[in-house]
Design a protein that fits this description.
Elements: E1 11-25, E2 28-40, E3 47-50, H1 56-69, E4 72-75, H2 78-92, E5 101-105, H3 120-126, H4 138-145, H5 149-175, E6 183-185
Parallel strand pairs: 1-4, 4-5
Antiparallel strand pairs: 1-2, 2-3, 5-6
Helix pairs in contact: 3-5, 4-5
Length: 187
C-alpha cells in the first residue's frame, strides 16, 4: 500500500470502550464493545454508537462502513487492542472482518523513550492540550458496564472525549516528529 504519492488521504480517528463479558479460564476475561466513536481528521463532528442505545450488530456494521472509506485509521493502541477486538466482534456476527489498513498508532508508533508515560492522557497533559479525557471512577465503570442510562451517557462522554483528545494529540506528536510512518495492520 503506497501512501507516499497520495494526497487528500481520508484519515479516520476512532476509539472504543469495552466491558468484561465472560471467563475463558483462570482469571482471564473476554470483552464486549460497549461504544465506538469516530471522527474524520479535518472535521469536528464525532459519531458514536453505544450498546444499550444501538443494536450491537449495527454498531459494528456502521463502524465497518466508515473504516472501509478510510485510507488510514488512527488511534491510541489500536493495533493491539481496538482493531483486534472489533475484528473478533465482527466475526461473531458472521462478517468477514476488517481489511488490512494503514494505521497511525500513537502508542505503538511513538518514538522510543524512557521514564515518560505513553498513555494518551499523560501525553496530552505533557503537551498542555485543552482537550480533556472524561474520567471514570470504579462506580462509574460499574454503571457503564451495567448499561444503566447514566452509565451509557458516561460511556458516550468518555469515548467522545478520547477521540477529541486523540485528534489533538496526533497533530502535536506529528508536528514535533515523535511519530513514525503509518504501519499496515493486517488482520
Amino acid at each position: 500500500m503506497n501512501l507516499t504519492k497520495r494526497r487528500n488521504l481520508k484519515i479516520l480517528d476512532f476509539d472504543i470502550e469495552n466491558r468484561p463479558l465472560s471467563y475463558l479460564g483462570m482469571d482471564y476475561t473476554t470483552g464486549e464493545i460497549t461504544a465506538i466513536a469516530w471522527s474524520w481528521v479535518g472535521e469536528d463532528d464525532v459519531q458514536v454508537r453505544a450498546l444499550g442505545q444501538d443494536d450491537p450488530e449495527d454498531i459494528l456494521i456502521d463502524f465497518e462502513q466508515v473504516y472501509n472509506e478510510a485510507d488510514i485509521v488512527t488511534g491510541h493502541y489500536i493495533r493491539k487492542h481496538d482493531l483486534p477486538l472489533i475484528n473478533g466482534s465482527l466475526l461473531e456476527v458472521h462478517s468477514s472482518g476488517l481489511s488490512e489498513k494503514a494505521t497511525i498508532d500513537t502508542k505503538l508508533d511513538l518514538m522510543q523513550m524512557k521514564y515518560l508515560s505513553a498513555s494518551q492522557e499523560s501525553l496530552a497533559g505533557m503537551f498542555g492540550l485543552s482537550e480533556g479525557k472524561e474520567h471514570m471512577t470504579q462506580p462509574a465503570w460499574r454503571e457503564a458496564n451495567r448499561l444503566t442510562p447514566e452509565g451509557i451517557e458516561k460511556t458516550i462522554q468518555r469515548v467522545t472525549s478520547d477521540v477529541k483528545q486523540h485528534k489533538a494529540l496526533r497533530v502535536k506528536l506529528t508536528e514535533c516528529g515523535a511519530l513514525g510512518p503509518p504501519v499496515v495492520w493486517r488482520p
